[in-house]
Amino acid sequence: xxxxxxxxxxxxxxxxxxxxxxxxxxxxxxxxxxxxxxxxxxxxxxxxxxxxxxxxxxxxxxxxxxxxxxxxxxxxxxxxxxxxxxxxxxxxxxxxxxxxxxxxxxxxxxxxxxxxxxxxxxxxxxxxxxxxxxxxxxxxxxxxxxxxxxxxxxxxxxxxxxxxxxxxxxxxxxxxxxxxxxxxxxxxxxxxxxxxxxxxxxxxxxxxxxxxxxxxxxxxxxxxxxxxxxxxxxxxxxxxxxxxxxxxxxxxxxxxxxxxxxxxxxxxxxxxxxxxxxxxx
Length: 281
Prior knowledge:
This protein is α/β, with parallel strands linked by helices. It has one domain: Rossmann fold. Helix content is 37%, strand content 22%. The chain contains nine helices and eight strands. Strands 1, 2, 3, 4, 5, 6, 7 and 8 form an eight-stranded mixed β-sheet that branches. Strand 1, helix 3 and strand 2 form a beta-alpha-beta unit. The longest helix is centred in the first third of the chain and has 22 residues. The termini are far apart.
């Protein structure tokens, strides 16, 4: 497997695919909150543009702290429903609404309602878990419903002034995460992946967050690096000095970072004229 190349997942590797971040780590709640601050506005805009309506049934895969699940529940109203799933629900405590269910769930193995949801959404999940997770997400979408996936493309992660050392840090992190099944270039392949899954009306858009070091926006990247620090060093992908330098650069207000996100969406084909319209029961 090469960083930035087309990933081939063997049956043996399918058994090793896992999410690399420790859900029980002391600052994981803060890391997830920082992710929400970075990406929630764009996520809501994408889903709004698809015409989400009161009464829709929605599935949020990898719900994290639950900000998008909460917004979906408010948007679809009392006639709709939202199922928020994650491999750990530790950070979903307190997420409650009459039309919202929180469920501990492994998308790679645990059952989901089949062909049930008007909208299935996952952000920064499929890049870790790969094709099987995408296919299981598609199976949960009802005919005529939408699948929306959002994933990074780290080939477009940049700094200014350009620093080759930071590029090497990014690449080392991507190589390390790839051992657990992570695909650092998954974002650019989302269109083809959704088409291969048999969806119609597939389209995509990208957004880039631009932020200074030592700002609230760097928190997500800094805490992600810190979460993996011991494993990165033990793996020999990154020296302690390089990791320390990268963290210091993230805390330098003279540094500017560009982080890309790709959102792609597609509609499950209708079986025929008798299927219900979205949001109607």
